[in-house]
Design goal:
Blueprint (H helix, E strand, L loop, with lengths): L1 H28 L7 H20 L9 H27 L6
Length: 98
């Protein structure tokens, strides 16, 4: 179970960082962000999660807001997984969680 939680945490960590970097480049690159190689790369890394969130959100949510919604949903899930991992480590003993 600990390995599963570690893996899930890692899977969530990658798109979270990609969306955070995408937000930073959104501010820094401005209107030219769509031609920025790194912005496109970060978009590619977070695309599966963004597409899933696009399908789950109502049509009233604008397309430009979907990455923000995705980031916050993934952040909440990441914290839940982290707290579950902490709880499991407290049950098993801290030495077995290393």
């Amino acid at each position: 179970m600990l390995t599963f939680l570690n893996l899930l945490q890692l899977i969530l960590y990658i798109p979270l960082l990609a969306l955070l970097g995408q937000g930073a480049l959104y501010v820094l690159a401005g209107a030219k962000r769509d031609t920025n190689f790194f912005y496109r790369l970060l978009q590619l890394l977070s695309k599966p999660f963004t597409l899933l969130m696009r399908r789950l959100t109502p049509a009233k949510v604008a397309d430009e807001h979907v990455p923000i919604v995705t980031f916050f949903i993934l952040l909440v899930v990441y914290f839940v997984v982290t707290f579950e991992r902490i709880d499991l480590c407290l049950q098993l003993g801290v030495e077995q969680c290393r």
